Amino acid sequence: MNGGPSGFHNAPVTKTIVVASAFLTVLAGFLGRSLRLGLSYQDIFGKFPLWKLIASAFAFSSTPEMIFGLYLLYYFRVFERQIGSNKHTVFIIFSILLSSILETLALAYLRETLNKLASGPYGLIFAAFVPFYFDIPVSSRFRVFGLNFTDKSLIYLAGLQLLFSSWKQSIVPGLCGLLAGSLYRLNVLGIRKLKFPEAFLSVFSRLPLTSSGLSPNLSRGNATGNMRPYPGHQMEGGYPSQLERNLSESMEASIATLVSMGFDRDSARRALMHAENDVNVATNILLESQSLR
Predict the structure, then answer these.
(1) Which DSSP helix (H) or strand (E) runs through 150?
(2) 37 near 61, Cβ under 8 Å?
(3) With 257 labelled, which of 50, 234, 247, 285 sits at a CA distance of 20 to 30 A?
(4) pTM, whole model, 2 decimals?
(5) Which residues contact 227 (CB under 8 A, 6 or more apart)?
(6) Distance CA 78, CA 155 (A)
(7) CA atoms of 127 and 163, how far apart (whole Å)
(8) Would you give the distance in Å from CA 2 to the centre of its chain?
């Protein structure tokens, strides 16, 4: 299972978050402040250091946490491609702010047993698990040592590793993120209809971190606007070549996979043509088209 094209193509906001998180984690380690990043009750309700509040929202306190966290952030770029950079930015800000508020309340309530929280974008990562669970279908299943797995299992395992990496210190922000993601999905206060001005989003296209600017179609939330048509294939002597026959058989197999997920056959064929016969990308296109109805 993949998130569409490799790299951060059409996902500049996600790329900015990933690069910022990696940079701040390395910088904190270089300065010897990794273990001091996690917010505590005294930090919030006492001296309130601004630098720590910002750094703890993006920087991980250890290398293993950074590896799993950045891997999950990188995979979840698929949602920016689905709903567009504009709506995905709303999701990011909503998830971070709401999970931070919930974490503050948790620290106040559990101050006797929880001295501080793990640092890093736990709220954003675990909020993204909500649409991952509901909106990304299983496309393949397999067995390992008699146990059943799906193509989504690796993402869940990485999430569990990150969730339990620091025990209570990481479980609390993880649960706050799941709650924030659930409230976003429930469209609390109509948050899913909110959009930023296009001028605000254009900032990401000017950053040196991004290799390509925002696609106009993606920034409006159109997941199909930037897909290239499924390429035609030349005929040899007026008859289909062996390559064309193989591609036709491959597309029929892909259509059957999408139909088995409950999608209409004609819609599945059109989505596969836009996605160049990539089942995962076509699935994202079909899910997005359903959410826009």
Answers:
(1) strand 147-150
(2) yes
(3) 234
(4) 0.71
(5) 274, 275, 276, 281, 285
(6) 13
(7) 12
(8) 11
